[in-house]
Amino acid sequence: MQGKDPFLVFLGVFILGATFFFCGKGAVTSPPPVASQNPSETPPPVQRLIEPPSSPPPVPSVSTAAVLKKKIDALLVGTAMMFRMNSALLVPEGKVVLNSVAAILQEDPTSVFEVAGHTDGVGPEHANRLLSEQRAKAVVEYLISKGIVADRLIATGYGASRPITDGSTDEAREPHQQIEFSIGTKGEGP
Predict the structure, then answer these.
(1) 118 neighbors 158 (Cβ within 8 angstroms)
(2) Neighbour tally for 98: CB within 10 Å
(3) How many CB atoms lie within 10 A of CB 190?
(4) Strands, DSSP E only, in 147-188?
(5) Which of 11, 23, 125, 139 has the maximum number of C-beta atoms within 10 A of its C-beta?
(6) Cα distance between residue 96 and residue 98, in whole Å
(7) Phi and psi dihedrals of 25, rounded to 5?
(8) Is residue 38 part of a domain?
(9) What is the pLDDT of residue 9?
(10) Which of the two residues, 137 and 47, has the higher pLDDT score?
(11) β-strands 153-157, 113-117 pairing
(12) Which has more confidence, 100 or 26?
């Protein structure tokens, strides 16, 4: 520590000077202790400048359905096509994904989901809408076969009305030929 003592003294003086400059004279010196006349007296409580919160701030609640949707979305991202080309027949890889979706949906038997079918923009609009409806119904039927209650699933076909990408190439059209899950409400109909 030899040789650093003058530096530490200088640092201490600098800190005190900065405190005095920015906070005022009362911040550097403290009042002398006051002896009470009666030793059994307790001094008045010191006023707190910052009161601690009486209770922790409320944590925003996230619905169970929203949590399930995030899990399903994470599962569906980057998934290969679930259907044969221009068909509502599920491919084996699609069934594997839907088995995982069924397991996720079983975590909360009260949540309701819309199963939305999508297609690319190639072909007539009415044919794309019909194919997307058939795909959504195929997914709902498969999930029902895995023990999901039918009242919790709403099949809707959107055709090419909700594009994800511009769809100018085969790779860009592939995301449109998928199924999407959205949080629904009881009483909705297809």
Answers:
(1) yes
(2) 23
(3) 13
(4) 153-157, 179-183
(5) 139
(6) 5
(7) -65, -35
(8) no
(9) 77
(10) 137
(11) parallel
(12) 100
Residue 179 belongs to some domain of the structure: no
CA separation for the pair 185, 110 (Å, rounded): 10
Single-letter amino acid code for the residue at 47: Q
> What is the C-alpha to C-alpha distance for residues 7 and 20, in angstroms, rounded to an integer?
20
Here the tokens at position 127 are 């044919």
Report the candidate in 150, 140, 63, 166 with the shortest Cα–Cα distance to residue 108. Answer: 63
Q: What tokens appear for 148 in the block?
A: 């999901």
- The candidate with the shortest Cα–Cα distance to 120, out of 132, 106, 136, is 132
Residue 83 domain-assigned (yes or no): no
CA distance 111 to 76: 19
Range of the domain at 147: 105-156
123: left (phi over 0), alpha (psi -120 to 50) or beta: left
Q: pTM of this prediction? A: 0.61
Q: How many domains does the chain have?
A: 1
Whether the Cβ atoms of residue 87 and residue 140 lie closer than 8 Å to each other? no
Report yes or no on 150 lying in a domain. yes
